[in-house]
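Feature request disguised as a bug: please show the residue count (351) next to Glutamine--fructose-6-phosphate transaminase in the output. Example input:
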Amino acid sequence: MTSISPDVTPGKHMAAEIAEQPAVLSGLYANRAEIAQLAEAIRRHRPRFALLAARGSSDHAALYAKYLVEVLLGLPAGLVSPSTITLYEAEPDLRDVLLIAVSQSGGSPDLLAVTETARARGALTVAVSNTADSPLANAAQYAVPIGAGTETAVAATKTYSATLLALYLLIDAVREGTGEHAAALGELAEQALTECTGPVEEAVQRYRFADRMVACARGYSYASACESALKLAETSYLHARAYSGADLLHGPVAAVDPETAVLAITSAGRGGAAMHEVLDTVRQRGADVLAVGSAATHAPAAQRIPLPECAEEVAPVLEVLPAQRLALGLALARGFDPDQPRGLNKVTRTR
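Example output, currently without the count:
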């Protein structure tokens, strides 16, 4: 167990930054005009394919953006494997490609190398970062600062939700949308954080002794499942894995039993509707299901954390909030300080 200094309040930074998110989201939406100008430049280039490069929590934001690009823009999209460039020195032909590099710090050497190589090989490069003057932002042709402010906790919270919103506003503007589905997210985030307090506390007591948890979702919400599993693993050291609900049924469900806790992200829309078969299956195997989302009330689950309903394409911005609170609460209940997870630093530099 990580020792905690008596003069340190465990989790105070993570708790404070979770609470800042409604204001961060409202501020980012208010400044969407700058993002819309960048979207116009992307439209002029008429990309035929999109690639997304990221690591860690940002990789989950990139996964969300992949769904947005494919569904809202009708363009094929893929996630970059940075090692093809940093380890194997590949130089792919990236003409007519939009490369979006996502990094909260903007300082990861592998993402910098991917962006520089992509630009040199003909791609239109965009950096989405919380650090306006980062090496990544300077390497890309265009930069989208998410403006979340300094994040002290090692576990990303406000930078993650702000990155989701920035990516949505960018991609929505590329399709010449107005951002209307995101207009109320700041207020809805405040409502979600207020209303989830009791249910999260109940979930903390229910799962504080859990050894393993499976997070699952479909569609846009798959990114929320991935981020939830990461938060649980890095703060409370749970053995947490994330699966698409469809992939879970293709094999890993065999490992689900009465000792397995399942965190199911289920919001109103096609992705949430597709989760019904998944939840029926894991419940039949005896799993203890915690449902989170705007459709949680109607999900077959042992416990539920309902969220305000919004358009499905922006639901991940809200879905992650109770998951962050759950990770914080479980870490504290298990005697850990989520502000100082063992073996982790705020900026991870990989190649």
